[in-house]
Specification:
Helices cover 50% and strands 0% of the residues. It is built from 3 helices and no strands. It has helices at 9-18, 25-33, 51-68.
Length: 74
């Protein structure tokens, strides 16, 4: 069943820019609105960086957490 919907020109332009050559607008909308079924383990081993880069990121995250911690004075 086909339904007619209205969208603004900017929404149409955005959808058109996201549409593959052989893809319908309906398929674009389905692709953009379906919930991803991503398992965290799908990302395992995907980091292209070196061990040294990972170490530096860990230090930076730790420093940022310490800097942003709030203290509760009683």
């Amino acid at each position: 069943m086909t339904k007619l919907i209205s969208v603004t020109d900017d929404v149409y332009s955005t959808l058109k820019s996201l549409k593959a050559k052989d893809e319908s607008f309906s398929k674009v909308i389905v692709r953009l609105t379906e919930k991803p079924h991503t398992n965290i383990m799908d990302f395992f081993g995907k980091w292209p960086g070196t061990s040294e880069e990972i170490r530096k990121i860990g230090i930076k995250l730790s420093d940022d957490r310490k800097r942003n911690m709030r203290t509760l004075e009683l």
